[in-house]
Amino acid sequence: xxxxxRPTDANLLRGNLTxxxxxxxxxxxGTYLLDGGAMFGVVPKTLWQKRAPADDExxxxxxxxxxxxxxxxxxxxxxxxxxxxxxxxxxQIHQNQARLPASLAAAGVSQHEVTHVINTHLHFDHCxxxxxxxxxxxxxxxxxxxxxxxxxxxxxxxxxxLDRDKVSYLSPNYDPLIATGQMTLLDDEMIRRDxxxxxxxxxxxxxxxxxxxxxxxxxxxxxxACYIGDLMPTxxxxxxxxxxxxxxxxxxxxxxxxxxxxxxxxxxxxVLFTHDHHVPAATLSLNDKGKPVATPYEIII
Length: 301
Hints:
- Strand 10 (196-198) and strand 11 form a beta hairpin.
- The protein has a seven-stranded mixed sheet.
- It is an alpha+beta fold and 301 residues long.
- The two termini are 28 Å apart.
- The longest helix is centred in the C-terminal third of the chain and has 15 residues, at 250-264.
- Helices cover 21% and strands 29% of the residues.
- The chain has one domain (9-227): Ribonuclease Z/Hydroxyacylglutathione hydrolase-like (Metallo-beta-lactamase, Chain A, 4-Layer Sandwich).
């Protein structure tokens, strides 16, 4: 059995790093478990289990990494984990811990100081703490002073409630924010015209996992980091063909990974992984066989 890690106060904060003048904190909503076969698609288990050991129910341990960027004038939160509204059955399956508020506190981040929240897409494990439910059931923004950003196409797709992925789109994570105008819905043309959310932080479309999934670029003083969302959910997914069963368009995902690697490797980007609990940040290079490899980036706990 490979049990889910239970974060303690000592490891609520996954690490700190700097990108130019920007201070980044990698916070965590804890860990959760997902089926290893789904996470690696057609890749044989004999290959992926060497990198991500499975438990006796074929589940692997995944992280829920939220990156907080302090630019000096803005405090930007990228992704908000699963949250605390999972039905009991789903919580038993995933064994998630809803730790993000405690992790933010450990990083010295007040929920009221956050100015911007960016969701790469709107699957439940990326936007769960966008909102919080009061004991009386009233849904409120977890970050009351922040403007939220997501892609309009994600909302439209979620509203369709299609059989394949309706379980991944939970209306309370975004519809209340849209109703009050606290969530800005981006579209392809808006992103092409002006990808910046704040100076030094912008979004770019990397479709494949979902049709409108976005990566988040962080640039300051000639240094560059990219939170790549579920295009490459962990450091084990940097091989272009190791796509997930969850990806809506695997062939497009492969093409987008190659496009990403063609820039991230020669430009020495720091890659921030959404679901890698053990390697939340890495730089990428090619080995002597021309295959991409990840080198954990030095972060300070």
